[in-house]
Amino acid sequence: QVQLVESGGGLVQPGGSLILSCTTSGFTLKDYAIRWFRQAPGKEREGFSCVDADTGDKEYENSVKGRFTMSTDSEKNTVFLQMNNLEPEDTAIYYCATDRSPSCLPPYSYTVDSRSAIWGQGTQVTVSS
User: Fold this and answer.
1) Residue 43 has what DSSP assignment?
2) Residues 6+ apart with CB under 8 A from 55
3) pLDDT digit of tens for each residue in the chain (129 aa)?
C-alpha cells in the first residue's frame, strides 16, 4: 500500500529555515516522482516542486526557486525539503504527493492526476515573528 507521511513543520521566524520530510512506503523512491504542494489559508492547494529520484531531476516553481531545495534518501525512502529564508507568505499546510508518474517533466511538474493521486496528511508551517 502506497503511503506518504510528512513531518517537520512548525513555527519559524521570517528569514528562518525548516526541513520537511516526506517518508514513503509501498514503493521505492526511484519508481515514482514526488511532488510538494502547499495550501495557504483561504487559498487553493498549489504545487511548487517535484523530484525524480531515478534521474535526479528536480523542478522548482519560481516562488521557491533558490530558497527551497529537495534531497532524497533512498535507503530511508524519504524526500527532504530544505526551506531557507522563509517568508510569511510561505505559511501553509505542506503536502507531498504522488500519482505514480515516474517523471517531473513539464507541463505536469507541479500537478498530480487527481484520479490516482496519493497524498500525505500534511504538516503545518507557520512563518511569523
Assistant:
1) S
2) 103
3) 999 999 999 999 999 999 999 999 999 999 999 999 999 999 999 999 999 999 999 999 999 999 999 999 999 999 999 999 999 999 999 999 999 999 998 888 899 998 999 999 999 999 999
Gap between the Cα atoms of 96 and 48, Å rounded:
10
Give the DSSP letter string of 13-36. -TT--EEEEEEEESS-TTTS-EEE
Rounded CA-CA distance 3/98 in Å is 9
Q: How many of the other CB atoms lie within 10 Å of CB of 74?
A: 12
Task: Enter the C-alpha cell of residue 57.
Answer: 531531476
For the record, the C-alpha cell of 14 comes out as: 521570517
Distance of CA 84 to the CA centre of its chain: 14
Beta bridge partners of 66: none
